[in-house]
Design brief:
Layout: H1 2-16, H2 25-113, H3 117-140, H4 143-165, E1 167-170, E2 182-190, E3 196-202, E4 204-207, E5 210-213, E6 215-222, H5 225-235
Parallel strand pairs: 2-6
Antiparallel strand pairs: 1-4, 3-6, 4-5
Helix pairs in contact: 3-4
């Protein structure tokens, strides 16, 4: 039985051996093993190389991001500081403007309130003179002394107002009537060529070159007689001898 088995297996060996240059499965496996090992080594080595490359890239990228972040934080802090400084300047300017407006308003109110302080301080000595004159007149029981004191105070007051405040009184009686300076309360016809102020009721005053108060006056206005006489004189005829005077030149009835 063993012999038969040996005989049956021997042809297989004979047919397999003379397989010319073809390698056996074991030889092929042994030949492919180094290549597979190299491939496995390459495959095993590639993840390590990739990991080391990733670590190198990460280590080189992290300092750049950190630097940019630090720079951005510094710029943000600088901008915040600048904004705070500008805001503080704006608030200071706003407070200064509000205070300036309040100060100007207060000065304006004070100016209107105390505008007459200078004039009133100049009038106080005049009041003192009035008091002294009245006391002297009361002690002396003299009208003449009282009158002299009043005239003196009036002259002093007029000079002070004219010299310091340019307030001047102007005379109107006898001058030609000027509507810008005079206010006619009464008018009466008279033998005048132009309107003339005949009487002054209240004097007029000027402040610098402007009329502060017009004078209240009585006015004489032309009645036409003197104007007609002037026209006749210019024409070369005597008054009462003109053509219109012909009928009255006779005996009263128009006959000679």
């Amino acid at each position: 039985m063993s012999k038969h088995r040996h005989d049956s297996e021997s042809p297989k060996d004979k047919t397999a051996t003379p397989g010319s240059a073809q390698t056996t499965p074991e030889a092929a496996a042994s030949q492919q093993a180094p290549n597979s090992q190299a491939t496995a080594d390459q495959a095993a080595g590639s993840p390590g190389q990739a990991g080391s490359a990733g670590q190198f890239a990460g280590s080189s990228a992290q300092p750049g991001i950190a630097g940019e972040l630090e720079t951005a934080l510094k710029e943000n802090a600088a901008l915040k500081s600048e904004v705070d400084e500008l805001n503080a300047k704006y608030l200071r300017k706003l407070a200064e403007e509000v205070n300036f407006r309040k100060r100007m308003l207060r000065e304006k109110e004070d100016g209107q309130k105390y505008a007459l302080s200078s004039l009133l301080s100049d009038l106080i000595p005049v009041l003192d003179d009035f008091d002294r004159g009245m006391k002297a007149a009361a002690a002396a029981h003299s009208f003449e002394q009282l009158h002299e004191g009043m005239v003196l105070v009036q002259r002093q007051l007029s000079q002070m107002l004219e010299n310091k405040y340019a307030l001047k009184r102007f005379e109107s009686a006898g001058s030609l009537f000027d509507p810008s300076m005079h206010e006619a309360l009464f008018a009466e016809p008279a033998d005048v060529e132009e309107a003339v102020v005949s009487e002054e009721y209240l004097p007029g005053y000027m402040h610098h070159d402007r009329v502060l108060r017009s004078a209240k006056v009585r006015v004489k206005v032309p009645n036409g007689t003197k104007k007609a006489a002037a026209q006749e004189a210019a024409a070369g005829t005597e008054p009462g001898t003109g053509p219109e005077a012909g009928p009255s030149a006779g005996n009263g009835d128009g006959r000679n």
